Design the sequence.
């Protein structure tokens, strides 16, 4: 999360609610290392990335749910996933993304 | 102060810490921030937090799988590693350029004021004109510091190495031929350094890539520093059995 902290801090100062998605595990090859993260503000603003573009739109959808419920989610993306056809990783790897609302 | 505010402040400081986040199992969503100073923000995740000392030395992010099946993501916070070079010789400048390429901090010291000049070593973040012991006392190398001794002169190299061995530096390298290393090893033993400790010294330092020029030597040394930091042997990825990146087990 460190790479997006300054921006997230600013959003929060502006009164935004923020959800952060972080790559916490990778299997085989993955586009971004663990710790890479994407922040999503309730207004729809985004910064950072978890995959270089392949799964961000799906993470964004899940983030909306996290905004609503407040409960964190652990998502897995990769070739073995049903979502592979629409939001799979081109490198054939697999990543786990943890999505949480910031207090 | 909120966790995010504390993290933002941590990032602006020179302090190090680990942010623990439970991502699966009991307590999912729990965050605990632990700083090297002992400060702690948040409660719980004790089993993960108990691994703090190892994690902070590792210098990278990790996903911890605990015995009860809980998974805790440990995110490492801290300034970039430092490379402390003793000996403001030509290779030192090449080394500093490489250190800057990595985004790390380069510090160069030499007792000879004629050598340790901005003109000769423009890429160093800090230049110190002092004898090894004084320079080491000023720099305070810790577990995120690599030390490289380059002077080729025993009256500097030996005290620099003896001092380096007293620190927690994650890497200690020394230039010099294999024959010189052998002679130096004998002298350090005579000076009372433990044989076990001497094994920490990488000498001649660098990976075996056939380096000739100063720039090539610098790359060879920096590659070795990275390998030691990641607990890797170096060598061809083509022949490697491990994962390519270090941030995964």
Sequence:
């Amino acid at each position: 999360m460190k790479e997006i902290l300054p921006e997230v801090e600013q959003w929060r100062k502006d009164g935004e609610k923020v959800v952060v998605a972080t790559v916490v595990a990778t299997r085989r090859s993955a586009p971004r290392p663990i710790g890479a993260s994407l922040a999503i503000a309730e207004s729809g603003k985004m910064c950072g990335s978890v995959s270089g573009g392949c799964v961000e739109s799906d993470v964004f959808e899940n983030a909306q749910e996290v905004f609503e419920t407040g409960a964190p989610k652990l998502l897995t993306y990769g070739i073995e996933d049903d979502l592979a056809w629409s939001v799979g990783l081109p490198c054939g790897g697999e990543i786990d993304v943890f999505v949480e609302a910031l207090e | 102060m909120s966790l995010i505010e504390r993290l933002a402040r941590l990032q602006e400081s020179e302090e190090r810490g680990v942010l623990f986040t439970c991502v699966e199992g009991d307590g999912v969503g729990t965050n605990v921030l632990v700083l090297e100073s002992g400060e702690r923000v948040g409660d719980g995740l004790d089993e993960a937090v108990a691994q703090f000392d190892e994690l902070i030395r590792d210098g990278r992010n990790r996903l911890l799988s605990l015995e009860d099946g809980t998974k805790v993501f440990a995110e490492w916070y801290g300034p970039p590693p430092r490379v402390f070079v003793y000996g403001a010789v030509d290779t030192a400048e090449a080394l500093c350029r490489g250190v800057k390429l990595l985004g790390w901090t380069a510090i160069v010291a030499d007792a000879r004021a004629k050598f340790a000049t901005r003109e000769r070593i423009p890429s160093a973040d800090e230049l110190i004109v002092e004898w090894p012991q004084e320079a080491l006392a000023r720099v305070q190398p810790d577990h995120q510091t690599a030390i490289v001794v380059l002077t080729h002169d025993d009256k500097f190299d030996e005290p620099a190495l003896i001092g380096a061995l007293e620190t927690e530096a994650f890497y200690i390298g020394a230039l010099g031929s294999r024959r010189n290393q052998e002679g130096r090893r004998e002298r350090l033993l005579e000076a009372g350094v433990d044989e076990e400790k001497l094994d920490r010294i990488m000498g001649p330092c660098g990976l075996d890539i056939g380096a000739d020029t100063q720039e090539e030597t610098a790359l060879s040394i920096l590659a070795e520093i990275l390998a030691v930091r990641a607990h890797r042997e170096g060598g061809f990825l083509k022949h490697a059995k491990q994962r390519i990146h270090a941030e995964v087990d």
Summary: The interface with chain B takes residues 1-2, 5-6, 8-9, 12, 22, 24-26, 29, 33-35, 71-72, 74, 96, 98, 100, 102-103 of chain A (CB under 8 Å). Residues 2-101 of chain A form one domain. Residues 30 and 93 of chain A are 5 Å apart (CA to CA). DSSP finds three helices and five strands in chain A.
